[in-house]
Design goal:
Largest sheet: 4 strands, antiparallel
Organism: Carboxylicivirga linearis
Protein name: Heavy-metal-associated domain-containing protein
Radius of gyration: 19 Å
Pfam family, one: HMA
Order of helices and strands: HEHEEHEH
Helix content: 40-55%
Distance between the termini: 65 Å
Strand content: 15-25%
Keywords: Signal
InterPro entries: HMA_dom, HMA_dom_sf
CATH architecture of the domain at 23-99: 2-Layer Sandwich
Number of helices: 4
CATH class of the domain at 23-99: Alpha Beta
């Protein structure tokens, strides 16, 4: 009986390790043309409900949105499309672009 319990426990551990691998998360930063608190609210109200999104940080001043997501549920292109469906242009910020902060606070064409 003890051997059976040990085998079952070991099998559960292996399964749990494999399950964690499939739930790998990633982070992407988008430059999003937004200019007011209404934009922030709209993004905060919608993007977290996209499939696979685990976390979201909206930086109005920096015009950046950081999205943490599960790689097995979504990808960067699907997330970009979600922003576009809300009426915002979203461009991925690569690591080197993230350090060079560009500021442009003029009013952009999008739906409120």
């Amino acid at each position: 009986m003890k051997k059976l319990l040990v085998i079952v426990f070991m099998a559960m551990m292996v399964f749990n390790i494999n399950a964690k691998d499939k739930k790998k998360t990633a982070e992407v930063i988008f430059k999003v043309e937004m200019d007011c608190q209404g934009c922030v609210k709209k993004i905060n109200k919608n993007i977290p409900f996209e499939k696979g999104v685990k976390g979201l940080k909206v930086d109005l001043e920096g015009q950046k949105v950081t999205v943490n997501y599960r790689e097995d549920k979504t990808n960067k292109e699907a997330l970009k499309k979600a922003f576009e469906e809300l009426g915002y242009k979203a461009v991925e910020i690569k690591e080197e672009d993230h350090k060079a902060d560009s500021a442009g606070n003029d009013h952009h064409n999008h739906k409120h």
